[in-house]
Amino acid sequence: MRRAFLRRAAALVILIAVLALPACAGREPLRATFTAMDTVMTFTVYGKKASLENAESTVRALEKKLSVTDAGSEIYAINEHGGGYADSETLGLIRAALGFAERTGGALDITVYPAVRAWGFTTGEYRVPSDEELSALLEKVDWTGVMTDSGGCKLRQGMMLDLGAVAKGYASDRLRAQLEDEGVESAILNLGGNVMCVGKKPDGSDWSVAITDPEGGEYACVIKVGDAAVVTSGGYQRFFEQDGVIYRHIIDPATGRPVDNGLASVTVIAQSGLTADALSTALYVMGLEKAIEFWRASDDFEAVFITEDGRLIATEGIAPVLSVRGRFRGTEPEIVKK
Ligand code: ADP
Ligand code: MG
């Protein structure tokens, strides 16, 4: 009788130990979903609760500093006064973005804000500006008009900065570094279309990252990657329609008009989140042919393109880990080679 009781008690202790084990080893995912930087973010972290909370705080602190619409931000003050103080981190991001402007021939341009604003993309009060208005605004769109020194930056007359095309990618790099410092080996962070894969899954396999079909419905494809950023830019996320014409939130800095070149989305896969974010926007502006040329001349990213006429095109470095879904099922992706 006593022995039976002991056996049962021992079994119970073992059961409790087994149940407690995954939590102790950080093998259970901790998840948080919240809105920041104008988008819904979901962070999944295999680690301590504090790491998840710290990650959310970091994003909010970056948003406060980098937001173009928040009257308390460094960028807002710079835009108000035609220049001013930026801390070393903001300055570093501005300089990095100017580097991408140069590298992409101005397809990415952090001074495009006057045009973005004229179309109503910051407020949601959409309108189609006149040709005269746009040509006047274009004089204020020129990344070479941004001067930086150790204390901040200065803008040429009437110019304004918008880090919206690079802020989430940069934030994802900061978060990866922070999580790694805290000993987290495994996490997947979704910053609204910007995905950062920290390490691999706890079982050592690659993460599956789904790429949205710009047409809606099921995902277009899934790619398997580890320790990489996957960032998509597309016209389907934010746009408005007037008189049967669709106007998208990514602006061609050369014309001041929304991009309309037959690309539905561009996904860039890179080690750096900033690179992936900057280049997904820039490649979307360039259009398919120029973007492929640009990829051929680069060695720090891979890309997946979806066109409005239903083509799915992958660069050769990502094609082997890509599998099609949804309306692309049963078709082979087109592969571009170096
Ligand atoms: P999202 O922020 O929607 O994920 P992107 O990273 O492509 O997409 O950034 C788009 C944002 O960047 C726009 O909302 C606008 O604020 C700004 N922007 C638009 N066109 C450009 C451009 N050519 N270069 C730099 N920034 C741009
Ligand atoms: Mg971007």
Verbal overview:
- By secondary structure, this protein is α+β, with helices and mostly antiparallel strands.
- It has a domain of 231 residues: ApbE-like domains (T-fold, Roll).
- The chain has a 9-stranded mixed sheet with strand order 1-2-6-7-10-15-16-17-19.
- A hairpin with a 2-residue loop joins β6 and β7.
- α2 packs antiparallel against α7, α7 packs antiparallel against α8 and α8 packs across α9.
- The longest helix has 23 residues.
- It is globular, with a radius of gyration of 23 Å.
Which descriptors apply to this entry?
binds magnesium ion; 338 residues; alpha+beta; 3-stranded antiparallel beta sheet; binds adenosine-5'-diphosphate; 9 helices; 9-stranded mixed beta sheet; T-fold
Supply the helix-strand structural class: alpha+beta
Low-pLDDT stretches are: 1-25
CATH superfamily (homologous) name of the domain at 5-66 and 168-336: ApbE-like domains
Bound molecules: adenosine-5'-diphosphate, magnesium ion
Quickly describe the structure:
The protein has 338 residues and is an alpha+beta fold. It has nine helices and 19 strands.
